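Subject: for your reference before the review

Hello V.,

The reviewers asked for a structural picture of the protein, and I figured it would be easier to keep everything in one thread rather than splitting it across files. Below is the amino acid sequence we used in the manuscript, unchanged from the supplementary table.
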Amino acid sequence: MRLWDALRGQSRPKAAKLDQLFALPSAALTLEASMGLRPTGSGSVCFRAAEGQAAVATQQEASALVAADGGPVTESRVDEYGFTWLTVRTAPEDTSSLVTDLHAVNSALEAQGFGSGLLCSILGFTSSTVPHAYLVYLYKQGTFYPFCPLESGKRDTLTERQIRDIVSSDLPIEADHSRWMPIWGIPGA
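And here is what came back from the structure prediction:
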């Protein structure tokens, strides 16, 4: 940020660090070996869509980019807060392809000028003892955190901390726990 911008009270949004997503396949292997958590084959990109035809065209371009050459089809949904979720599904054992597809969606959105609206990407996991676990990537921070919702509407914080400890050598973990926001109603869950 330049001095003049600071004096006027303007700041530039942080650029997303999209390449951090490519650390997820390694973390997925670590989680499966350590806790028996397997990828679900579902991942989502969450962003604040702009209004108008440009936003619709960009979402269609991102979906088409992922679906090209027989790739998976994306599902789109707008949540009650106005955030758009693009969900990609692949074979559960193909985490690398899923991450590549999520990166492609994010890159398409960023290339069209929607980078400042990117909120997070999510990769789902499950096991016989943990029905829902997610690794959430925060774009502006360039960090991950685990989220484990329970059927009761609460969080399994013990499992979240176990996941944090297990993948901390694979992923940059968000140190500020106030940013470990619960995301209820994740698409594709």
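For the response letter, the relevant points are probably these. Residues 5 and 11 are 6 Å apart (CA to CA). The chain is about 35% helix and 25% strand.

Happy to draft the paragraph if you're swamped.

O.
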